[in-house]
Backbone:
């Protein structure tokens, strides 16, 4: 059974940092593109950051550029999202996802982890 399990969410004050982890099991994701999405209450889910299978190409939403860093450790089948200088508007459920077909469509999803940034 393929699973993506996020961890590292929590409550943090504005300006603080959190590091999210996404551990994959059931298949090797080392050849898959991976992404972090978030969904705030009443808003659509948005792509926050993405990384290609080799880790040498990344994408960031404009709202997080310069503050968030996506990385991966293929030996550990894990993807990370380092979030610095957090703002209250970053409050959301964060999801890890895998694009195993490399077509820009994410076909495996984690259950999400809550991130709450207090002002």
Residues:
């Amino acid at each position: 059974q393929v699973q993506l399990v996020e961890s590292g969410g929590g409550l943090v004050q504005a300006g603080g940092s959190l590091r999210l982890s996404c551990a994959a099991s059931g298949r090797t994701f080392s050849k898959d593109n991976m992404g972090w999405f978030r969904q705030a209450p009443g808003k659509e889910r948005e792509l926050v950051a993405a990384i290609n299978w080799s880790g040498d190409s990344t994408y960031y939403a404009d709202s997080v550029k310069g503050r968030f860093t996506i990385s991966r450790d293929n030996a550990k089948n894990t993807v990370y999202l380092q979030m610095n200088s957090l703002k209250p508007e970053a409050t959301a459920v964060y999801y890890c996802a895998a694009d195993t077909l490399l077509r820009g469509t994410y076909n495996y999803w984690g259950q999400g982890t809550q991130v709450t940034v207090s002002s």
